[in-house]
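Reviewer 2 asked us to include a model.

Predict the structure of this chain.
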Amino acid sequence: MSDPIADDSQYRPTGSLPAISLWATNVGRPVRSLDDWIDRLAKQARIAADTGHELLVLPEYACAQWLHMPGAPESASDEIPWMADLAADAASAVARMAVDTGMDILAGSWPWRCNTGDTSAVNRALFCRPDGTAIVQDKLTLTPGERDPAAWTLMPGESVAVFDWRGWRTAILICLDIEQPSIAARLAPLDIDLILVPSMTAAATGYHRVHSCARARAIELMTVVATVGTIGTLPDGTTNNGGAAVYGPCEPGLIDDGLLIGTGRLNQHHGDGPVLSVRDLPLAAVRAMRHGSAEVWPGPWDAANIAIRHEPGLKP
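Predicted model (C-alpha cells):
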C-alpha cells in the first residue's frame, strides 16, 4: 500500500469545525421494500442536513434490514448475493440524497459484486459526496462468518483509501479492520485527522473489541475515531450489540479517558435506532497536538529496527 497523498495542499480545512450524525441503525425494525428503506434513510438524511450536520454515517451492514423484506432468502448462503443484487439501486439512491441534501453520506456497507456476472462480492462502504462523486472502501479483514461457504462468503479488500473530507484527511476502516494494529501502522505516517468505523457486532464482546480498538487507534495515531454499529434483532434471531461513539487521544485540555462522546452499548430500540449528534469535532485541536503540542506522543514511530531477543530456555 503506497502513500496516496501526492499533493498536501488539498488538506486545508474550510469553515467551522464539522458536525457529524452517527445513526446506530435498528436492523430489527422491518422494512417492506427497498424503497421503504431508502425513504427512511432519506428522512434521516434530511433531518441531519437541516440541523447543520455535514456528514451522516450508518453502520456496517445497515442493509441487513433488507432481510425483513418479502422475498428475502431463508438460507444464509443466499443472503449475500441477494443483497448484492439490490446494492446498485441503493447506491444510486444514496448518491442522489447526498446531492439533494448537500451533505456527505456514508450509508454503512453492503455486499458489492466484484465483477459483472460473478457471484463473488466484497463488503463495501460507499461515501457519497454532494458533488456527485463517491469514495469506496472494501473491508480488508473478514470474520469467520464472512469466510464461511455456508454463511456470508465474501472477498477481502486490498487497499485503504485516504481522502479529503472538507479539508481533513479521512479514512474508513470497517469493523474488524479497526482491530488490526498492522493497518494502523500503515496509516501512522499519513497524518490522519479522522477515521470512520461502521461496524456490526452480534455479541457484547465484539462491541467491546471494536470500541476498545477504536480508542487505542485514536491514542496511537493521535487522531479522532468515530464508530457506529447496528442494533436490533434480525429475522434469523441474531441480536446486534452496537452503539455510537467518538474517541480522541488522552490529552490535557481534550479528554482524560479518550471517550469524547458515546451512546454506550445498545441492543434494542423501539424505533429506527438512536442518532448521536456530534458537533464541533475537535479535529483542529487534535491536529495541533499531532503536530507538536501533545503531552508525550513521539510522533509516528516505526519499530522496524527493533530487534527481538530470544532468551536462553525459550521454548518453541
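The radius of gyration is 20 Å. The longest strand covers residues 104-113. We have added this to the supplementary material.
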